[in-house]
């Protein structure tokens, strides 16, 4: 049986270890806006926020917010080639004619669609990140206004941090409903 004084002598190394871990954890979670190193968890949360803002803007026809998720020279590729730069992406999207709803019954509430993202895989190295994620789309554009899963695919992204904000440098969209936009066989993630 150990004496009480023996136990007290063994506490110091354990306390030192706990203190050292606390300092390392605290220093790894510094605010990126202050020019200090950020943690993987913080960067991942900011990237997931970027992806969500992109989806909300897309589904709510907020083109300015949508365009703002890209860098000034960002690239969007929806399967028709690369659209480079915020201005070109915006002009191209504005030129796409609006789709007519499948039904014109005015007693039903409006037809809507919602994009969702899942299975997010990220590699983050400094101010650059690579992402892969599944997406799917649900809508109620049918005579009953019932929700249906009507489209799916995946994203392949390159993101960069500029002035403390993550933005898309390149977003490639694969759409499994359209043959020429479908992904090649194989696992897109690493």
Tell me what you see in this structure.
The protein is α+β, with helices and mostly antiparallel strands and 190 residues long. The protein has one domain (38-181): Nuclear Transport Factor 2, Chain: A. Strands 2-1-6-5-4-3 form a six-stranded mixed β-sheet. It contains four helices and six strands. Residues 28-33 have low confidence and may be disordered. The longest helix is centred in the N-terminal third of the chain and has 25 residues, at 4-28.
State the helix count.
4
Shape, per Cα inertia axes: globular
- How many angstroms separate the termini? 54 Å
Mean pLDDT over the full residue set? 86
- What is the number of strand segments? 6
> What's the structural domain tally?
1
Strand proportion: 25-35%
The side-by-side strand order for the widest beta sheet comes to 2-1-6-5-4-3
Instruction: Kindly report the CATH topology.
Output: Nuclear Transport Factor 2, Chain: A
Q: Report the CATH architecture.
A: Roll
**Major pleated sheet:** 6 strands, mixed
Describe, in short, the structure shown:
It is built from four helices and six strands; from the N terminus they run αααββαββββ. With 190 residues, the chain is α+β, with helices and mostly antiparallel strands.
Summarize this structure as a short list of keywords or feature phrases.
190 residues, Nuclear Transport Factor 2, Chain: A, 6-stranded mixed sheet, 4 helices
Task: List the SSEs and their pairings.
Elements: H1 4-28, H2 40-59, H3 63-67, E1 70-77, E2 82-84, H4 86-94, E3 113-125, E4 128-139, E5 148-162, E6 165-175
Parallel strand pairs: 1-6
Antiparallel strand pairs: 1-2, 3-4, 4-5, 5-6
């Amino acid at each position: 049986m150990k004496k009480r004084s023996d136990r007290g002598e063994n506490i110091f190394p354990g306390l030192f270890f706990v203190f050292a871990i606390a300092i390392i954890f605290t220093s790894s979670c510094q605010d990126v806006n202050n020019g200090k190193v950020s943690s993987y968890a913080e960067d991942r949360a900011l990237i997931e926020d970027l992806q969500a803002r992109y989806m909300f803007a897309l589904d709510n026809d907020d083109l300015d917010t949508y365009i703002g998720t890209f860098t000034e020279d960002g690239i969007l590729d929806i399967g028709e080639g690369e659209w480079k730069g915020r201005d070109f992406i915006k002009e191209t999207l504005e030129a796409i004619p609006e789709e007519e709803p499948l039904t014109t019954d005015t007693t039903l509430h409006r037809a809507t669609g919602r994009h969702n993202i899942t299975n997010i895989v990220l590699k983050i190295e400094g101010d650059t990140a690579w992402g892969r994620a599944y997406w799917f789309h649900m809508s109620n554009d049918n005579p009953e206004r019932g929700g249906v899963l009507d489209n799916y695919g995946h994203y392949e992204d390159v993101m960069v941090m500029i002035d403390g904000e993550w933005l898309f440098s390149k977003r490639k969209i694969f759409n499994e409903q359209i043959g020429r936009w479908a992904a090649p066989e194989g696992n897109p993630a690493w």
